[in-house]
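FAQ: What does the model actually see?

It sees only this:
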Amino acid sequence: MFLKFRPFKYFFFKYFPFYLNAKKIKKNKNNERLKEFILSLSNANLDKIVVVASGPSSRKLKLSDKSLYLCTNDSIKLVDSKNYIYYIQDEYIVLRYLKFFKPKKYWSGTFCIVNNNGFNTNFKVFNQMIKYLNRYKREKEEFLFSDFKENMLYNSYYNELNLFLKKEFDFEFQTLNSGFSLLMLASYLAHVLNKPMTIYGLDFGFGGNEYFDGSEIDTRHCSFEKKNIEKMSVFYKALYKKSKVKIENYSFYNPNINNEISKRNNF
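And it is asked to produce this:
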């Protein structure tokens, strides 16, 4: 009964002693296979990359067998019947994933990006990921990108992503919320694969203070902070102006596809 409450779930995930559905191994080589992973995607005959965050506009999503979906947090529930990549970042979600994630047929892999921004939560996420990746693996690739000075491979992936963002959009990776990080990762993959990108669910409070499933979003959430929305606006401006692939954003925040809510908010 107590596990209905998120704080109790957090401690349960944190102190649960096992990584379910993961194999214990001497060395996990999955994180070394990024080039092979991207090559497999390029051979998959995809029509586009679809970003699916947890905002209410993701209800408009129409699934296709030909698309690759990048999801985060609970938006995995919307796409797990199609080919998808799962992105994890927040400590609660990372712990839930590491301890209890059960792979499904269409899961293609998982990414986690952790930057050293001075927050202790990021350091804890990094340590949790290292602890897992050093000794365990699931059947598909699980990648860690990080600028924590621990492992040259994690650093090289992070630097490659950051170099792409600087070169293409004059923007550096920064942790705001998982949806924004997902967008930056998806932009990188879309350009590497030369595929158009479609966006749903990055709403930042526009369209209602709720998630796609109708549950309420705490207005103290970082995605509602003015400074974070301003940073998102800077990235979107560069993305729309400089992207080498087609971008269609159906989110209620800063879309480039007309809808009633965007008109009311003068986007």
